[in-house]
Design a protein that fits this description.
The complex is a heterodimer of chains A (about 600) and B (about 200).
Chain A lengths: L3 E7 H11 L4 E4 L6 H14 L2 E4 L3 H13 L4 E6 H6 L1 H10 L5 E6 L13 H8 L3 E2 L4 H18 L3 E3 L3 H4 L1 E8 L21 H22 L6 E3 L5 E6 L2 H12 L4 E5 L7 H10 L2 E5 L5 H12 L5 E3 L14 H12 L32 H12 L5 E4 L24 H12 L4 E7 H17 L5 E6 L28 H7 L4 E5 L4 H13 L4 E6 L10 E5 L9 H6 L4 E2 L3 E2 L8 H5 L5 E5 L3
Parallel strand pairs in A: 2-3, 2-4, 4-5, 5-7, 6-7, 10-11, 10-12, 12-13, 14-15, 15-16, 16-18, 17-18
Antiparallel strand pairs in A: 1-8, 9-11, 19-22, 20-21
Helix pairs in contact in A: 1-2, 1-7, 3-5, 5-9, 10-13, 14-18, 15-16
Chain B lengths: L2 E8 L4 H14 L4 E4 L10 E8 L13 E6 L2 H7 L3 E10 L6 H4 L7 H11 L2 E5 L1 H8 L5 H10 L8 H10 L6 H14 L3
Parallel strand pairs in B: 1-4, 4-5, 5-6
Antiparallel strand pairs in B: 1-3, 2-3
Helix pairs in contact in B: 1-7, 2-4, 5-6, 5-8, 6-7, 6-8, 7-8
The chains are: A alpha/beta (about 600), B alpha/beta (about 200).
Chain lengths: ~600, ~200
């Protein structure tokens, strides 16, 4: 019996529940904001609901694991952030040709803004490139319904289906109806051997034609889903709104008191022809509102031309709608008001009300935590490299924050694993300089190893520093292959990064504790002096996971007021005076760098 | 009758929990609700702005400028930063205790709490200043700052549910051994704004 319960769920949690209601049997993921809670929730539910869930090493691996399960007829799901799909692009493109037997759903979270990403890429465009259907939810509730429906859609088409929430769905909480008792079918699948699973060029040529035919099938299926809906009005004006933008459009229309024909789209690719053509026939002027790329707009323009419907179409191509950044009600209301008034010019970038009158406010960037071992590692290498001409290449993780003053130890950041390879490339251009690559433990497993092997093979004399804090901290402390725990929290083999580096052929590998400042500097100096590729594993657990009992104090009698602790470390627990606030967790770095030995730890009662 | 609340503060102050508790209380009162905030890079001493929208009617999760009915400020400078969201006759409850960012310690940023508080007084018709940090310490734990502020808000007769209803869902969201100190903090907050 179906018993629906109302729960306050974040969009990502709602998606996880939708996948469970849809019968997920195998789930795999690599974390990345704003997608991480999808799998986090699945991992929590897996044991009770009897399905398999794993944190994979990277997104390519996750997708291939899920594809294998779907080959055997199981319902499988993967989740990742939008740039993770770049890593998984190789299997994705070929999987569209091969197809799946069991339903396969990719949850790919986009980040218009961007708030926590290196690009604003639009996964709907990626879906069109891969020729795969994509669902674009407006709310957490709809995201849940889409996640559930995506499995049967995937099986009906024999294709993977992409569900693409944006940050304002993924991280929005809503009262969501959930079938708490939903139970996926047992984990029994069987792979049936056959030539259709081996992608030789001959098969690819055949399947490409099949894949093209499936575009039309998907388009027809989408004409009948509840995820697209039209509200007609007695007006020559029409608006098409996609995904979360439709909520802003509805609120802005209510605010403006405007009645227009409104088509809400939840299936942007392939865009269903029927509701769009119906709308085109009803209207003289049409506005298309979607964040980022003109995915819906281009298809509407094509349909208008194909059906010879003389409708003026406003959107990205006449600069009526911005092609970058996140939308909100204010931006959309401005666009709608101009459209209704027949104004063609670009909307003004509206400054926040009163913002110009506000008194000067402090800049408040996210910072490395008090006691963060990365700060100690960065500082040790800065000390060791004093007087040398060094470039510090960085990577994706909390430690990208080492870029900020006063550390200034991240000179480049591109994508997962690129610290090592960019350093190797820089070395070819400027062999007289030293190049030091910093990357985290999870990032090392994700994409660092091929670059390290490449540096050994091609003899790039770079220094690679693995900031091993025993977790994937920035995305919410997920386990990884070095932690000795799996997604279920159960014991798993713990891979040793130092031994892996040795196996990659690195002949200088050292492990140091960044909290032991002098020793860390000594190891860093030795690594910098080494003529070939060198690896230093800076091993110390993430400070938010460790329970320190020591607090440090500054003896004002001994303090010289030199400012080293305050000005060189950028620790959020040290303030002018200098004084140490209760935020101190006792890493001891300030005590190690104090030239007057004025800082000492004491066992605190807290 | 809808109610839009903006909660501004600094990562680690417990403002996300406050937004969840308000949303849960609204949901359990039978009202549709949305919350939104940016989490991820913005955590850890960064600016965190939570938006809570209680309907009906209700569309998206983002509150338009000058439309918030209530501003719950966890920190003076962040309350000022969030002010463009508050409507002309809106209500604000603001903690007077500053949280200084590292940029201030390094001399890279200004910070003048007196200027911020004065600005708030000048621009908000119904402003309630609360020494939430002091009251949290008085309750017995500085981390109960969010309970103090929720208590103060609940005393103002702006929420579509009773103070006890909010307190119930606050305590439900907190581990058992911290409930008593949070109950006390909530009460101290409530008393601090009694009109």
């Amino acid at each position: 019996m179906l018993i629906m319960k109302k729960m306050l769920l974040m969009g990502n949690e709602a998606i996880a529940w939708g996948l469970v209601e849809g019968g997920v049997q195998v789930a795999a993921a690599y974390p990345g904001t704003p997608s991480s809670e999808v799998f986090g929730t699945l991992a929590e539910l897996a044991a009770a609901k009897g399905f398999y869930a794993e944190w994979s090493v990277n997104e390519k691996v996750a997708l291939e694991v899920a594809a294998g399960a779907a080959y055997a007829g199981l319902r499988a799901a993967v989740s990742m952030k939008q740039v993770g799909l770049n890593v998984a692009a190789d299997p994705l493109m070929a999987l569209a040709y091969i197809g799946v037997k069991g339903g396969l759903v990719l949850v790919v979270a986009d980040d218009p803004g961007p708030h926590s990403s290196q690009t604003e890429q639009d996964t709907r465009l990626f879906a069109r490139f891969a020729k795969l259907p994509v669902l674009d939810p407006a709310t957490p509730q709809e995201a849940k319904e889409m996640a559930k429906a995506a499995f049967s859609l995937s099986e009906a088409l024999g294709l993977p289906v992409i569900l693409r929430p944006t940050t304002r769905v993924a991280h929005v909480c809503q009262d969501v109806e959930v079938d708490e008792a939903a139970l996926p079918p047992p984990l029994t699948g069987r792979f049936a051997k056959g030539s259709q699973w081996v992608i030789f060029p001959g098969l690819a040529a055949k399947r490409h034609r099949w894949l093209n035919d499936q575009q039309d099938q998907a388009q027809k299926l989408f004409s009948a889903t509840p995820f697209n809906s039209c509200r007609e009005a007695d007006s020559p004006l029409g608006v098409v709104a996609c995904g979360v933008s439709s909520t802003y459009v509805e609120e802005a229309l209510a605010d403006l008191g405007l009645a227009v024909n409104l088509l809400k789209i939840g299936t942007p690719y392939p865009l269903p022809a029927e509701p769009v053509v119906n709308l085109l026939r009803r209207t003289r002027r049409l506005l298309i509102i979607e964040e980022l790329e003109p995915v819906v707009e281009e298809q509407v323009i094509r349909l208008a031309w194909q059906h010879q419907l003389p409708v003026q179409i406003a959107g990205k191509y006449n600069q009526a709608v911005p092609r970058a950044g996140e939308f909100n009600v204010d931006r959309v209301r401005d666009i709608l008001a101009r459209f209704a008034a027949g104004k063609e010019e670009a909307p003004l970038e509206k400054a926040a009300v009163q913002a110009a009158d506000l008194p000067p406010l402090p800049v408040r960037p996210p910072v490395l935590c008090a006691g963060c071992p990365h700060r100690a590692s960065f500082y040790a290498f800065k000390k060791a490299a004093a007087g040398m001409d060094v470039v510090f290449t960085g990577d994706i993780g909390c430690y990208t924050l080492g870029n900020a003053p006063p550390l200034n130890t991240v000179d480049t950041c591109l994508c997962m694993g690129a610290s090592i390879t960019i350093a190797a490339g820089l070395h070819r251009a400027e062999p007289d300089r030293r190049h030091v690559a910093f990357l985290g433990d999870s990032t090392f497993f994700h994409a660092g190893i091929p670059g390290l092997i490449n540096a050994v093979y091609n003899q790039a004399p770079i220094t690679v520093v693995v900031l091993d804090n025993r977790t994937t901290a920035m995305t919410g402390y997920q386990p990884h292959p070095g932690t000795g725990k799996n997604a279920a929290g159960k014991p798993a083999p713990a891979l040793d990064i130092a031994r892996l580096a040795e196996a990659c052929g690195v002949d200088f590998v050292r492990v140091a504790d960044p909290y032991q400042h002098e020793e860390a500097v000594r190891v860093a100096k030795a690594a910098l002096a080494h003529p070939g590729p060198a690896v230093v594993v800076m091993r110390r657990e993430c400070v938010t996971l460790s329970q320190s009992k020591t607090a440090y104090r500054i003896d004002q009698e001994k303090c010289l007021g030199c400012g080293v602790c305050l000005e060189e470390l950028g620790c959020p627990a040290i303030f002018p005076g200098p004084r140490i606030t209760p935020a101190c967790v006792g890493c001891g770095l300030c005590a190690a760098v104090c030239p007057a030995q004025a800082i000492a730890g004491e066992v605190a009662s807290r | 009758m809808s109610l839009d609340l903006i909660i501004t503060g600094v990562g680690g102050q417990g403002n996300v929990l406050a937004s969840r508790v308000l949303a849960k209380a609204a949901m359990e009162a039978g009202l549709p609700v949305r919350t939104s905030e940016i989490i991820g890079m913005a955590q850890r001493e960064g600016v965190v702005m939570s938006q809570v929208r209680i309907g009906p009617p209700l569309w998206g999760a983002l509150i338009p400028d000058e439309k918030a009915d209530v501003l719950l400020g966890f920190e003076p400078a962040e309350a000022v930063r969030g002010l463009p969201k508050l409507k002309a006759n809106g209500v604000a409850v603001v903690n007077t205790a500053p949280v200084l960012p590292v940029t201030v310690a390094l001399g890279l940023s200004p910070y003048d709490a007196a200027v911020y508080l004065h600005y708030l007084e000048k621009n908000i018709a119904r402003l309630y200043l609360v020494d939430a940090h002091g009251l949290a310490l008085q309750a017995g734990n500085p981390r109960t700052l969010n309970a103090v502020l929720l208590g103060a808000l609940a005393a103002l007769d702006v929420l579509p549910f009773a103070a006890g209803h909010l307190l119930y869902f606050l305590l439900e969201a907190i581990p058992e051994h911290y409930r008593e100190v949070n109950r006390l903090a909530f009460e101290l907050g409530r008393e601090s704004v009694k009109e």
